[in-house]
Amino acid sequence: MCGIIGMIGKTSVVPSILEGLRRLEYRGYDSAGIAVLNQGTTDRRRAAGKIAKLENELRKKPLDGNTGIGHTRWATHGVPNVVNAHPHVSGAVSVVHNGIIENHKQLREELVSLGFAMETETDTEVAAHLVKYYHDQGLTPEKIMRAIIDRLSGAYALVIMIADYPGMLMAARKSSPLAIGFGNNAMFVGSDALALAPMTRRISYLEDGDWTIVNQDSLTIYNSKNVQVERPVSLTEVSGALIGKGKYRHFMDKEIHEQPEVIGYTLSAFYDPNLNCMKIPKVAFNPGLLPKLTIVAAGTSYYAGMIAKYWLEGLARLPVEVDIASEFRYRNSVLPDGGAALFISQSGESLDTLMALRHAREKGQHIISLINVDESTIARESDVVLKTLAGPEISVASTKAYTTQLAALLCLAVDWAQKRNVLDKKKAFEIMDELSRLPTALAKVLADKERWNACAHELAGARDVIYLGRGLNFPTALEGALKLKELSYIHAEGYAAGEMKHGPIALLDEGMPVVMVAPYDEWFDKTASNLKEALARGGRVVLLSDKEGIERLDDKPAWVFEMPKVNPMVSPILYALPVQLLAYYIALEKGTDVDQPRNLAKSVTVE
Ligand code: G6P
Prior knowledge:
Blueprint: E1 3-8, H1 14-24, E2 31-38, E3 41-48, H2 51-60, E4 67-73, E5 88-90, E6 93-101, H3 104-113, H4 125-136, H5 141-151, E7 154-162, E8 168-174, E9 179-182, E10 187-190, H6 193-196, E11 202-205, E12 211-215, E13 218-222, E14 228-229, E15 234-235, H7 251-257, H8 259-270, E16 271-272, E17 277-278, E18 293-297, H9 299-316, E19 320-324, H10 325-328, E20 340-345, H11 351-362, E21 366-371, H12 377-380, E22 384-387, H13 400-419, H14 425-447, H15 452-459, E23 464-469, H16 474-488, E24 491-496, E25 513-517, H17 524-536, E26 540-546, H18 547-552, E27 559-563, H19 571-590
Parallel strand pairs: 18-19, 18-20, 20-21, 21-22, 23-24, 23-25, 25-26, 26-27
Antiparallel strand pairs: 1-4, 1-10, 2-3, 2-4, 5-6, 6-7, 7-8, 8-12, 9-10, 9-11, 11-15, 12-13, 13-14, 16-17
Helix pairs in contact: 3-4, 4-5, 8-13, 8-14, 9-13, 9-16, 13-14, 13-19, 14-19, 15-19, 16-19
This protein binds 6-O-phosphono-alpha-D-glucopyranose.
6-O-phosphono-alpha-D-glucopyranose binds next to helix 9.
């Protein structure tokens, strides 16, 4: 993944590059570095760990220069240490890179045979040496760019600085995003508008295959065929303000608490309660005639897609397939003429999801996306964009983006169900009315959150935890297990409750925690039997249910959490909260890094 930034200014670029890197930390935080040009030489500082470590380094040994590049890394090739941290330098050349150079091995061998000494285990180092090689041959910056683009395969966003050209940066993008920022007496290159927003709102997005030469007061962009092109400059809506934690200890805690409000905003974008009418953006096809919808997403967004399948099939009688983004392209799925594909992504930048989108477009599907970051690549490449109004989600583990995705997806299902003439107005109103009242129920769960502490204290010692759910809340069980793994590093698995007897039950012994997500719904009695099976084998059951469900049980589990009663149709949104809270409090108990868990990144821009 990684976040990259470059800047040409009239004064020292270091403070702005650091600010940009702080805002890019969501893309990776294994190591960070900055290189600047100072009186014809390259000066560089790097540190393993988060940006704060780099800041320490800079305090000890300050940097100064008017042209510079910076990087925050999510390690792919080579361990996260100082040597492997970017920028990589080869003589006068410095490079920062986001992506994976797939032919790095061949290039490495070739460059070694030409006399280059390799210092790192990274794929990026070859790009630095390659640029130096062509620079040493006397090629102009334009010719160097053409030459290296011909040689590099894989995915990359590259920013290159050459000491002989102060006030100039070279950059290229293939699959990984890159934006140009136009400031006052300054030019910027960065992974996204978020990084550049404190410095400038005037942004131009490079298109796939573009490369560019950026000077203090000029910019030349070429497309993949080396033809000079213009790319539109727009004013970004992304705020340059620093996003703070407010009164909360972690961004995750803050984002969990924002859910009633942002679900409310998202609902009001898709539904007008006064007129009782849906406000789903128009699609270029008739949903009534749609043969099939393919939903593709990764991580938590994928679980939102799984729940959407229940809604769209159950309410709208629309055949739906849900695919993991990283698998979609490889199974040659049958995509019918006139079909549509829906891509769900908080960031709008997950590379697996983007590649899946391009594959679906090649196969003639209508492209719809549900995203939270509206200037993202996925949004820009979609025919229709549905936007969740979760606001910036900073914590790596997704919370409010997920529940706003669910709110939007249920609105879509209700709208299409009516357009397909399979849901009458009264039923549709009942669901939308229940959805409109959901923020109050969510607030109620949050008001009573302290009750999770004692349970979290006990579960923090567990080695493994099983999550079970049935029907609409099977994906909630998967999401609960994912949250626990991400935040507390405890091994957890989510299963469809009915599947327990086909394998997972072998894991059950005295004390094994089993979290049951079981609102009282049409499947409750079956899930209650699975609960009994777990209790009979000594499992320590944590039950999430409502009054009606709890009253139906004669054997009471160790932990029972009564949830507000809601229509089962909207329960996956409500029950997302307790699984988030449980994971959060267990992480607090374990003292892990809640907002930036080890090895993860918020936006995954490698395949
Ligand atoms: C990463 C994040 C997850 C997220 C997934 C998909 O793995 O750590 O929290 O769910 O990417 O991200 P997207 O932005 O496409 O929803």
